[in-house]
Amino acid sequence: MPMSFQVAVDSQHAHVLADWWAETLGWQVEAHDPAFIRSMVEQGDATGEETATHRGELVWRAGAAVVHPDGLAVPGGRIFFQQVPEGKSGKNRLHLDLRSAPGEPGVGVEQLLERGAAVLGEGRQGPYSWTVMADPEGNEFCVSS
Q1: Chain centre distance of CA 31
Q2: 60, 79, 122, 130: which has the highest count of C-beta atoms within 10 A?
């Protein structure tokens, strides 16, 4: 039986990075349920230290996910940003390659630079070219052109 998956990204500011990637991909941040979170704390199944407030909402501190607008029916349609204490220390062994559907406008390198990304390099193979970039926390990704 085939397995489903999500991509998990270590982050020092998981909720902020999830917001950045949701905007970049045209996806949405998966909603947290503040009433459920409060009930878990009140029942002793979670602690207040396991929660945080982001954009005025009670959220789980552990992380945030972004999902494809069509939901999880899309393979790879969820990216989870998990809170970790340490910063990025080396090159990613796995990265995202971003490209738009044919004929659709996509996110451009200049837009990403304005939003806090950095260019790390350029690549080309035959008729294909791409820009290697880093998100605001240094995670590498490529943008195809």
Answers
A1: 14
A2: 79
Q: How far is CA 21 from CA 3, 54, 62, 124, 135, in A?
A: 24, 16, 17, 25, 8
Q: Are 134 and 24 in contact (CB under 8 A)?
A: no
Paired tokens of 90: 């080396």
Q: What pLDDT digit, counting tens, does each position of 40-68 carry?
A: 999 999 999 999 999 999 999 999 999 98
Residue type, 41: V
Given a contact cutoff of 8 angstroms between Cβ atoms, the answer to whether 46 and 40 are in contact is yes
What token pair was written down for 120? 């790390």
Token digits for 69?
A: 């607008």
- This prediction's pTM: 0.89
CB 106 within 8 A of CB 24: no
- Cα–Cα distance, 28 to 33 (Å, whole number): 15
* pLDDT (0 to 100) of residue 32: 93
Please give the full DSSP string across 23-88, using - where no structure is assigned: HHHT-EEPPP-HHHHHHHHHTTSS-GGGEEEETTEEEETTEEEEE-TTGGGSTT-EEEEEE-SSPP
